């Protein structure tokens, strides 16, 4: 860690993600002296390669605009590079390196053959017209297309990149390569997309939560669940929770939080879903509704009593004070939808309190798992039904849960899911790297 801090002093998110993994796998790493002889940990911490480029595009007023674009190809020991693309003004190399690092372990947990990568740009689709987004996506892929491919690197969506953006990027990739291939996942259903991909991360997180609750014999129905975010992951998490009889007591976006003291009804959820998906509206537009309270500039964790928290917006959105407030109100479980939403201090609080705490690399792996299933369907030129995909998703989440239990269960019965997920993911990648020599 000291060496990495010296080499990459301006990359706090990357250092945070690496430190969490190396500290939790230290014990098992030291059991295999051959790993150290091959300097395996250092190789695994540094991305295989980083591609960075300028993206120039023309806005609706004829002005030339410039953004930075990146693809971090972290590790392909167990399969082609795989991971989403993020378009958000906050994107920088530190964030993409942390996401690509995490993705490597997450993908190893899914049981599918996928390496880890992440990409993106500091371009924000917010407030841009469809044509501006299309021109940006085309300019982005114009730079990236030589470095991706169905057996090389398969990007998908992430923050700011949904079906619209994936469609535009896929279209331009097809034009450049003159091939129709499964290079992007999260595609539209009419051109190779998989049923259930939009739902997969949110539903998968709820399935993981159900697996955790089952170890304690706790029923989800009637539980108050605080969810953050109001994007792809948060909305499908909320939808599944409501269907299973839980009370969704919060949602949020980058401007503030919506608190629903009695829990969202299916009808109210429909209103939020329409607002967010049909015209990309803001939660503040619901401030005058009598079933909710809107808190500008606030995160939900200290505003509402919740039995369960499912942070599903962005990294470091739940800090030590938030964690202590949740625990003081009797929170029994935290299942992360976002990547690294809890700060190290918050994680420490959850582990100390010995509640059910699932790190994103385990609990949000449903999205990339169904992306892996989309790749399999594309290779076979077949489409599976929603029921088939959902069943496979449930099976994968149960399998990830079992791997966490295998490596994370302690003598007193408590499961440290952080250690479990990191160790299981690490061992798979490490074995493959050892077998392949120094490459
Ligand atoms: P979306 O862009 O669909 O939604 C993101 C949500 O989070 C929006 O409500 C957004 O608000 C809010 N948000 C984004 N940045 C911030 C911020 N800095 N502060 C507060 N709120 C913020 O993204 P997704 O739902 O796809 O992704 C959410 C998280 O889940 C990310 O961490 C992502 O990496 C992770 N994830 C996503 C997967 C997927 O399949 N999509 C798979 C696995 C993990 P606003 O609209 O105001 O910007």
Quick description:
The chain has helices at 2-7, 12-30, 33-37, 40-45, 93-109, 130-144, 163-177, 197-215, 232-243, 266-278, 320-328, 344-353, 360-363, 366-380, 386-408, 417-436; strands at residues 49-58, 64-75, 81-87, 116-121, 153-156, 224-227, 247-253, 256-259, 293-296, 308-310, 333-335, 356-358. By secondary structure, it is of the alpha/beta class. NADPH dihydro-nicotinamide-adenine-dinucleotide phosphate binds at residues 90, 157-160, 201, 229-234, 253-255, 312-314, 317, 337-339, 364, 367.
What does the model show?
This protein has 439 residues and is α/β, with parallel strands linked by helices. Helix content is 47%, strand content 15%. The chain has helices at residues 2-7, 12-30, 33-37, 40-45, 93-109, 130-144, 163-177, 197-215, 232-243, 266-278, 320-328, 344-353, 360-363, 366-380, 386-408, 417-436; strands at 49-58, 64-75, 81-87, 116-121, 153-156, 224-227, 247-253, 256-259, 293-296, 308-310, 333-335, 356-358. The strands form 2 sheets. Strands 9-8-7-6-10-11-12 form a 7-stranded mixed beta sheet, with helices on both faces. It has a 5-stranded mixed beta sheet with strand order 1-2-4-3-5, with helices on both faces. Helix 8 (197-215) crosses helix 9 (232-243). The two termini are 22 Å apart. The model has no long low-confidence stretch (mean pLDDT 97). Bound molecules: NADPH dihydro-nicotinamide-adenine-dinucleotide phosphate. NADPH dihydro-nicotinamide-adenine-dinucleotide phosphate binds next to helix 9.
């Amino acid at each position: 860690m000291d060496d990495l801090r010296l080499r990459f002093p301006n990359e706090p998110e990357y250092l945070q993600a690496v430190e969490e993994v190396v500290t939790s796998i230290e014990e098992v790493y030291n059991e295999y002296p051959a790993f150290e002889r091959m300097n395996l940990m250092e190789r695994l911490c540094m991305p295989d390669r980083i591609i960075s480029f300028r993206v120039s595009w023309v806005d609706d007023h004829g002005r030339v605009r410039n953004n930075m674009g990146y693809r971090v190809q972290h590790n392909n020991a167990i399969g082609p590079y795989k991971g989403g693309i993020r378009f958000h003004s906050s994107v920088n190399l530190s964030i993409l390196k942390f996401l690509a690092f995490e993705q490597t372990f997450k993908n190893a947990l899914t049981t599918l053959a996928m390496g880890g990568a992440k990409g993106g740009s500091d371009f924000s689709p917010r407030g841009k017209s469809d044509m501006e987004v299309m021109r940006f996506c085309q300019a982005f892929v114009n730079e990236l297309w030589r470095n991706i491919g169905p057996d090389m690197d398969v990007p998908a969506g992430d923050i700011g990149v949904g079906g619209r953006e994936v469609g535009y990027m896929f279209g331009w990739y097809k034009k450049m390569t003159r091939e129709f291939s499964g290079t992007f996942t999260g595609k539209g259903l009419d051109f190779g997309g998989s049923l259930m991909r939009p739902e997969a991360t949110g539903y998968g997180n709820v399935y993981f939560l159900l697996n955790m609750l089952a170890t304690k014999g706790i029923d989800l129905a009637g539980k108050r669940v605080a969810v953050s975010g109001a994007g792809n992951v948060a909305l499908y998490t909320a939808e599944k929770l409501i269907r299973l009889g839980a009370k969704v007591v919060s949602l949020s976006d980058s401007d503030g939080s919506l608190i629903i003291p009695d829990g969202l009804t299916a009808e109210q959820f429909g209103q939020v879903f329409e607002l967010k998906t049909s015209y990309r509206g803001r939660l503040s537009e619901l401030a005058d509704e009598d079933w909710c309270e809107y808190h500008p500039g606030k995160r939900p964790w200290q505003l509402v009593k919740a039995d369960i928290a499912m942070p599903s917006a962005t990294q470091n959105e739940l800090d030590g004070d938030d964690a202590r407030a949740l625990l003081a109100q009797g929170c029994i479980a935290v299942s992360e939808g976002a990547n690294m939403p809890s700060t190290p201090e918050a994680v420490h609080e959850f582990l100390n309190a010995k509640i059910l705490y699932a790190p994103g690399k385990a609990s949000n792996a449903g999205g990339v798992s169904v992306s892996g299933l989309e790749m399999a369907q594309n290779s076979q030129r077949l489409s599976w039904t929603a029921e088939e995909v959902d069943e496979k998703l449930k099976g994968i989440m149960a399998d990830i849960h079992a791997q966490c239990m295998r490596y994370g269960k302690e003598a007193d019965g408590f499961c440290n899911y952080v250690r479990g997920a990191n160790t299981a993911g690490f061992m798979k990648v490490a074995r493959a790297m050892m077998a392949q020599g120094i490459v």
